[in-house]
Design goal:
Layout (H helix, E strand, L loop, with lengths): L2 H114 L4 E5 L10 E3 L8 E8 L2 E8 L5 E4 L7 E3 L6 E6 L4 E5 L2
Parallel strand pairs: 5-8
Antiparallel strand pairs: 1-7, 2-3, 2-6, 3-4, 7-8
Length: 206
């Protein structure tokens, strides 16, 4: 082969080798550039996912808080309604108990005066009213039937209760008991009881 052709062939080989090296180098540069770009984008994606996860967690906590608050309010309102109904249903019974105990106070006083025997006297101060409302005692049957009736117009209806007393002769005295009725807010709220051995005299002081 002539020397000129040999030199030309070597030149072409060198050029092709340099071209391949250049293309290989550009490929590596492109790969490295893409790798750097991918790495630079990855934290952003992770940050976005982390922010979204935190937002979802806060939303879930807020929803649970509202749910628990609603349940608590429902339970509180239901408990208030139940307690209020129970108290309202118990009020008439409580008022009737107070009225009944007032009448039993008169029975105890009469029993004491009867058992005291001849010469016994007692001054009894009775309640002027029951829960702010006056009441009356019907004593017309006290002597012959040995009972009296307490009547009280309570806030939940009229209360009437009959009380038995010891078997003994009774005598009502004075103008305040002239009709056989004791009215709590009329005259005074003091009864005088006197046992002479034959009768128990009851007098409401004016």
């Amino acid at each position: 082969m002539p020397p000129e052709n040999n030199c030309s062939l070597k030149g072409q080989v060198a050029i092709e080798s340099a071209s391949r090296s250049a293309r290989h180098l550009r490929g590596q540069v492109a790969i490295e550039s893409a790798s750097r770009e991918l790495r630079s984008r990855t934290p952003k994606v992770r940050g976005t996912l982390g922010s979204a996860s935190a937002g979802n967690l806060r939303g879930q906590v807020a929803t649970e808080f509202l749910l628990y608050t609603a349940v608590f309010m429902f339970v509180a309102v239901a408990a208030f309604i139940v307690i209020n109904d129970v108290q309202r249903s118990e009020l008439p019974l409580q008022q009737n108990t107070v009225a009944k105990n007032t009448g039993e106070g008169f029975v105890s006083t009469l029993t004491l005066a009867v058992k005291g025997g001849e010469g016994f006297s007692y001054r009894y101060t009775f309640p002027r009213n029951i829960l702010g409302i006056s009441y009356s005692l019907d004593m017309n049957k006290l002597d012959d039937s040995k009972w009296f009736m307490l009547e009280w117009p309570g806030t939940y209806g009229n209360f009437s209760y009959q009380y038995g007393v010891p078997d003994y002769p009774y005598k009502l005295n004075g103008t305040c008991l002239g009709a056989g009725m004791l009215v709590s807010d009329a005259c005074s709220n003091v009864l005088m009881l006197s046992n002479d051995g034959e009768n128990l005299t009851i007098t409401q002081l004016p």
